[in-house]
Amino acid sequence: MTKLKINIKEFLIYLPALLAMVFFGMSFIWTKVLLDYYGPITIIFLRLIISAILLTVFIFARGGIKVKKSDYKYFFILALFEPFLYFLGENYGIRYVSPTVASIIISTIPVVTPIFSYIFLNEKLSIYNIAGLLISFLGVIIVLTAKNSTLVFSLKGILLLFLSVLAAVGYSIIAKPLTGRYSSVKIVYLQNIIGILYFAPLLFTLEIKELVQTSLNFEIINALLQLAVFASTLAFILMTTSIRKLGVNKTNVFVNLIPVATALFAFILYGQILSIQEIIGILVVIIGLFLAQKRKYEKIVVHEDR
């Protein structure tokens, strides 16, 4: 009975991170639905507006937010990477690839990050990082060269999604000093507000006519609300909870589950069947991602046990 209670308690600690990655994984499916009606910029803009409203209520219910004047420049750079460049790459890229392929490419972020961390933050790469990087990219290639893959037709989509990966890396490097002064929810709130300012000129220049002419229906409202509420708002709040309980590094390992969540819900909701080669590729990616962070997590566990 005692062991069962301990297991349940441990499960509840990991549950916020698990749910956050499920929501992030499903975001690729919701975005794909909305792309039948709106352009990428419109989707991002509406998503940020709804998320900003929800986060405004959440933050000011908890006492508001104060920002040092010297930190504003970092928030503007932060928002340039994410949501601006990240979502431009993701939403334009997903036009040319399946949600599962998109989520697999995005899930390489934890493996690519150590390379840039070494360059900009002088964090050393271990043999596990290098091996995991190579194995994960092998998995991506396996998936993309499957018979039903869109690689031949969508090199543009692949490159755009890797732009998102690089933007996420830049975001993490800029965000590192800010996390010591602000909560993750407040950082997300500010980056969304600034992101709205970045996207507004593009929306009114490129897609305002399409936005005005498109009639709302249940599918649009449903996908947009789920994308904004679950992926842009609740997922980040859950991630914040997980970071507080587990720490940043232990939370990040759950990013590896995003392609699994996307593939699972693509099958459940739309009957999208994965080939054997695609399944093998997904497994190789996940193995590589865990291997890339193996030594790092072992050190963290020893440190925390002390």
Describe the protein's topology.
Elements: H1 2-34, H2 40-61, H3 72-93, H4 99-106, H5 109-121, H6 127-144, H7 155-178, H8 184-213, H9 218-246, H10 248-252, H11 258-270, H12 276-292, H13 294-305
Helix pairs in contact: 1-4, 1-9, 1-11, 2-3, 2-8, 2-9, 3-7, 3-8, 4-11, 5-7, 6-12
pLDDT averaged over residues: 79
Strand content: under 5%
The outline comes out as globular
Major sheet summary line? none
As an assembly, this protein is: single chain
Helical stretch count? 13
User: Stretches where pLDDT falls below 50 for ≥5 residues?
Assistant: 296-306
Helix proportion = over 70%
Radius of gyration: 19 Å
Order of helices and strands: HHHHHHHHHHHHH
Beta-strand segment tally: 0
How many angstroms does the end-to-end distance come to?
27 Å
Structure classification: mainly alpha
Number of domains: 1
From the structure above, extract its key features.
306 residues; mainly alpha; 13 helices; globular; disordered C terminus
Overall description:
The protein is mainly alpha-helical and 306 residues long. The protein has one domain (19-305). Helix content is 80%, strand content 0%. α1 crosses α4, α2 crosses α8 and α6 runs antiparallel to α12 (276-292). The radius of gyration is 19 Å and the shape is globular. The protein starts with a helix and ends with a helix.
